[in-house]
Amino acid sequence: MGMINKKYYSLGTVINLSVAPPATEKDLDSAYQLIQHYEDKLTVNRAESEVMSVNHNAGIKAVSVPEDTYDLIKKAVVVSQRHLGFNVAIGPLVKLWKIGFKGANKPADSDIRQRLTEIDPFQIELNDSDQSVFLKKTGMEIDLGGIAKGWIADRIKELWEKSSVESGIIDLGGNILLVGKSLRPDSQWRIGIQNPVEKRNVPLGVLQTAAKSIGTSGIYERKLVIDGHSYHHMFDSLTGYPIDNNLASVTIISDRSVDGEIWSTIGFYQGMKKGLALLETEPGIEAIFITRYLEVKTTSGLKNTFSVVG
Description:
- This protein is of the alpha+beta class.
- The chain folds into 2 domains: 4-17 and 147-308, T-fold (Roll); 50-143, ApbE-like superfamily (T-fold).
- It has helices at residues 25-42, 50-56, 67-80, 91-97, 109-118, 148-162, 257-280, and strands spanning 4-10, 13-19, 63-64, 124-127, 132-135, 167-172, 175-180, 189-194, 203-209, 213-218, 247-254, 286-291, 296-298, 306-308.
- Helix 6 (148-162) packs across helix 7.
- The longest helix is centred in the last third of the chain and has 24 residues, at 257-280.
- The chain is globular, with a radius of gyration of 19 Å.
């Protein structure tokens, strides 16, 4: 018996969900309903959402949000304040450059400097007691595009584990989260890692793994996320300019998809040498770095499980 598979469209991307019997199509549809529920709460692609209520009150007042949304925002803000290359407040800068959109341009230095004051994660005030978020400066905005898909995937995995799904694949636009055992005799999953200079589905290598999250940040595909435009890993919050290094992609293998989103962005920002050193010290996080010249390096934990094809 193979997998039962369905495609959906949400979060600005194609969603691919699969489960093995005895799970049913009902498990796929309930996962899709969960995606829609969280998209309603977290999107910045609409005038109203829980995140937009925070943005609308930038420079005005703190806004209380439900616990799940607060926990996700807090996770994003805390990691942003480490200044490692992930910044939940980067939106105003992305909108200034408009890369990938009509009117893309190299902005004036004075405009970039102005935006740097609006993308400072230390200007975000969190209050645990009333679960409130305050963007202290007018013009600031938070955008969970670089993290929400992973967080939502983790919620689907919890849902499926509660309903005893024995084997499943959650693919939210190329970020894969595996559930349970694969249907192969050894119960291990085999996942192709994209060759960043070839067309889709041409792998550069194959990873053999237990049920983990496999998430990639790459220059070869503009990551479609909740608001349909995220180049988080392409901008440097300290300079206001796109990051310039020779990386083509960074793939993170982790237990949780949300961590894969965060660390693939950070790995991209840090570059191969610093990124590998940093990720080597993060417990439970492994990484595959691929340069534009197809040089491949991995963290030590993947020595026996990742192999380059050909």
